[in-house]
Write a structure and sequence with these properties.
The protein is of the alpha+beta class. 31% of the residues lie in helices and 30% in strands. It is built from 9 helices and 13 strands. Strand 2 and strand 3 form a beta hairpin.
Length: 315
């Protein structure tokens, strides 16, 4: 991998907030923004140029997989994003790639190339209703755009966008090869080291609002979740990470002493709670784009009770 240098301007002082990424050798800039920080970035002059944009979130049944929408615009990127704020609920953050050097055909090619790559890798849920076709360009233009595409993929990795990451696909193939429990135990060892060898006793799961209210709050339990035998014996508590727009760990519950029961025939379990669920005094919010929970995570209750942000739990 080639060395490269970038400059990052953080508009509100938060390295995971609204920010602009540039490189002196690039002909474009990247504007990265949490959905709730859009008002801070929307008037940037970069939005006067043509470009593409990618919206990222987690929703639906596949809570461990990115949901991604890829679009383009000729000086209309700002208006399109504002439309998606009103009409698309799934996304939590976005990135816009903008340049005065991009004409309509070039942004269409970049949109086509990114959609094609994301579709072929299959590590995200592509929210585009229509798959764009490849525009007609000469070989020289395509060669130049492939350089731009390589640069964009470098930034995608930098900001934690998994949709174009082949290593994610490789890891998911491993997960399908009957090594889930082994990988979970390896992750547990790493988790223990990161947390100063504190004993794991809590599982944190992501949830949408409907599931949170219906199952966690009303039924006083959680299902269906896959937990290895080694981990089941340790779990005493379950906490909830509520997805956008809340994007925080807000509640937890104690699991009954014998409250982990099989749920169905596919190795998943139901956790029944002891007593009422409890709310953290202060929600544990995310600071970085990578802090969204993609699936169940392990920790201990003591760490959660002391944490202010999610990176305090999983550095």
């Amino acid at each position: 991998m080639e060395e490269y240098t970038i400059k990052i301007r953080c508009l509100d002082g938060d390295p995971q907030g609204a920010r602009i990424i540039v490189n002196d050798d690039w002909v474009w800039s990247a504007i990265v923004f949490p959905k709730d920080k859009w008002d801070l970035i929307k008037d940037d002059k970069g939005f006067q140029h043509n470009g593409i944009y990618i919206l990222v979130g987690y929703s639906g049944d596949k809570e461990d997989i990115e949901n991604v929408y890829i679009g383009e615009g000729d000086a209309t990127v700002r208006g399109r994003i504002e439309s998606h704020i009103k009409n698309k609920d799934f996304w939590e953050w976005g990135v816009a790639i903008l340049s005065e050097k991009f004409d309509k055909a070039r942004v269409q090619w970049l949109e086509y190339a990114l959609c094609k790559l994301a579709g072929e890798l299959g590590v995200c849920v592509l929210q585009n209703g229509n798959f764009p076709s490849e525009p007609t360009l000469d070989d020289s233009s395509k060669s130049s755009l492939r350089k731009r595409l390589k640069e964009i993929l470098q930034v995608a990795e930098l900001i934690g966008l998994e949709a174009f990451d082949e290593s994610v696909k490789k890891n998911r193939k491993l997960n399908k090869a009957n090594v889930e429990e082994a990988e979970e135990e390896i992750a547990e060892i790493k988790n223990d080291l990161l947390q100063g060898n504190k004993q794991v006793d809590t599982i944190v799961v992501p949830s949408g609002e409907e599931t949170f209210n219906k199952i966690f709050m009303e039924e006083n339990c959680w299902y269906a979740i896959r937990i290895s035998e080694a981990i089941r014996a340790k779990i005493k508590y379950l906490a909830i990470y509520r997805k956008a727009p809340i994007s925080a760990i807000t509640h937890w519950a104690e699991v009954e002493a014998d409250g982990i029961k099989k749920h169905g025939e596919d190795g998943k379990y139901r956790l029944n709670f002891k007593g009422d669920v409890k709310e953290f005094e202060t929600p544990i919010k995310r600071r970085r784009n990578g802090d969204q929970l993609q699936g169940p995570r392990k920790t201990n209750l003591e760490t959660l009770l002391k944490a202010k942000v999610i990176s305090d739990v999983w550095p």
